[in-house]
Write a structure and sequence with these properties.
The chain is mainly beta. It is built from no helices and eleven strands.
C-alpha cells in the first residue's frame, strides 16, 4: 500500500509561482511512475505532468497547456515528487492531485488533493 500527501497549494496572482510537494509513504519500491493531475470545477481530471522512477526531468511528460511553465521533479531518496509552477494563469485554477502508479500500470494511488487558485 502507498500513501500520498500533497502540500503547497494556495492563492496566487496571475504570473506568480507555486511549488507543490507530494510525500510518498508505504511500499515505495512498488511505485514506478509519479505524476500530477488537476481537476477544475465542472471539468474532468486531467494530466498535468508525469515522471518515471528514474526521475530524469528532461524526459518528463507534460500537458501542452503547461509546457514551458511547469516542471515536475522526483527525489527517490526523499520519497517526494514536486511540481514547480511558474507564470500561473487563472485557467490553472484547480484541485491538484498527486498520483503514483505501480509497475505494469497498476495499482494506481491518489492523494487527497490541494487547491490552487490563480486570481487577482
Amino acid at each position: 500500500q502507498v500513501q500520498l500527501v500533497e502540500s503547497g497549494g494556495g492563492l496566487v496572482q496571475p504570473g506568480g509561482s507555486l511549488r507543490l510537494s507530494c510525500i510518498v509513504s508505504g511500499s515505495i519500491v512498488s511505485v514506478a511512475t509519479m505524476g500530477w493531475y488537476r481537476q477544475a470545477p465542472g471539468q474532468q481530471r486531467e494530466l498535468v505532468a508525469t515522471i518515471t522512477r528514474r526521475g530524469i526531468t528532461k524526459y518528463a511528460n507534460y500537458a501542452d497547456s503547461v509546457k514551458g511553465r511547469f516542471t515536475i521533479s522526483r527525489d527517490n531518496a526523499k520519497n517526494t515528487a514536486d511540481l514547480q509552477m511558474n507564470s500561473l494563469k487563472p485557467e490553472d485554477t484547480a484541485v491538484y492531485y498527486c498520483n503514483a502508479v505501480g509497475w505494469g500500470g497498476s495499482p494506481i494511488y491518489w492523494g487527497q488533493g490541494t487547491q490552487v487558485t490563480v486570481s487577482s
